[in-house]
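Entry 12.
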Amino acid sequence: MLKKILLLSSALAFMSAATLAHADTIFVLNQDGCSGTCGVAPFGTVDLSQTNSTTVTVTVTLNQANGTERFAGTGAGDALEFNLSSNPAITIGNITTGFGVGPSPDTASTFGSFDYSVTCTACQGGKSSNPAGPLSFTVTSASGVTIADFTANTGGYYFASDIFGNNGKTGNVAANSFSNTPSVPEPSSLLLFGTGVLSAAGLLRRRFF
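Predicted 3D structure (tokens):
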């Protein structure tokens, strides 16, 4: 009987820990809106990570398999453009050096309009010397913001980015789909799990012995 109760307590503690687990949502920049083409897709990823109830961290990583892709500053778009449901007031902070808060709203040529953007302040046109990233920043809202709040625009695109492609051409690429990575318990979650198990064991031991 004691063994069964301990197992149940362990399961409940683990489930509580899992609710605090950290999971990312990955968007793939695989839509090519360049004049002709920007080369071979995918061109990069946009990783959304829930920092806390009011903040999401955004990380844009260009595909550097061939070492040529860069962010661009052609004026046809920006380093990253995105939407949030209900268009809340937000603060974009902790931005990677060489980037800054962009126009709001903004457009990305063939991919349409977006409510928010981050621009590459260090980019000059489509030069190969432009920053390759990764680009990282936080999106914070006093009313709360979650990964689920990042929504597609009217064209069905979640993100767009102005890049120097892997064939030397420039233009906007976009993401119209995403995937969720498995949840991985954070150290605090594992500590909660361990504490729950030990506490349950101690209580039951006093009761039965």
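Annotation: The helical segments are 2-18, 187-208. The CA atoms of residues 6 and 160 lie 50 Å apart.
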